[in-house]
Amino acid sequence: MKVLIVTGGSKPNDKLLLQKYEEAELVIAADSGCNVLYENALMPNIILGDFDSVDKNILEEIKKSKIEVKVYNPEKDYTDTELAVYKAIELGARQITMLGATGSRLDHVMANIGLLNLLLDKGIKASIIDSNNEIFIINKDTVLQGVFGQTFSLQAYEGVVKNLTIKNAKYELKDYDLKVGSPLTVSNEFLHGNVEINFESGKLIVFYTQD
């Protein structure tokens, strides 16, 4: 099942929101994600969170639709986005897209990337997408698809990525041990065709980016 989670960071542009909404089989709004969907005349299947950032009039209008509502205490051990992810897992999600999971709160952005890692470990395909970025994590050899001149970046996650090789990109690499925080693999580009990413062990955060 494809699940879309709309949460309370940077608002996606209308085109992106509608595209991902139409692709999803289930839509979960976390906290002020309710505002984003309502303002675009889109209805979630489930809303959850402490609702401290939701327009109260919008919340009451959504509740009239008799969808599933789960209210949590603001003083809790989980972020609203995390609760939405756990709900998606509970319902059998095999693919999760998160919108509104980036923004000015870098602590939340880092936590949301951590949720990508949690989902990877559970075998669930997951990504964070906004108007300028798509972010996901890989733990095995992967073929990246893109168009000529498109920018992508890689970052080691959790530890060293052993024997990293990048083929068919503007900047190629062979058998390199990439450490966490290394800027070496930032701002690469697609040429003609797919890019091959191979490595012996570790995890890589993949960023598709545009200005």
TrEMBL record:
GO BP, sorted A to Z: thiamine diphosphate biosynthetic process; thiamine metabolic process
Gene3D superfamilies per record: Thiamin pyrophosphokinase, catalytic domain
Principal EC category: transferase
Enzyme Commission code(s) on record: 2.7.6.2
Keyword terms of this UniProt record: ATP-binding, Kinase, Nucleotide-binding, Transferase
Occurrences of domain Thiamin pyrophosphokinase thiamin-binding (ranges): 146-205
Top-rank lineage group of the source organism: Bacteria
InterPro entries: Thi_PPkinase, Thiamin_PyroPKinase_B1-bd, TPK, TPK_B1-bd_sf, TPK_catalytic, TPK_catalytic_sf
GO terms for MF: ATP binding; kinase activity; thiamine binding; thiamine diphosphokinase activity
NCBIfam families for this protein: thi_PPkinase (TIGR01378)
Protein name as catalogued: Thiamine diphosphokinase
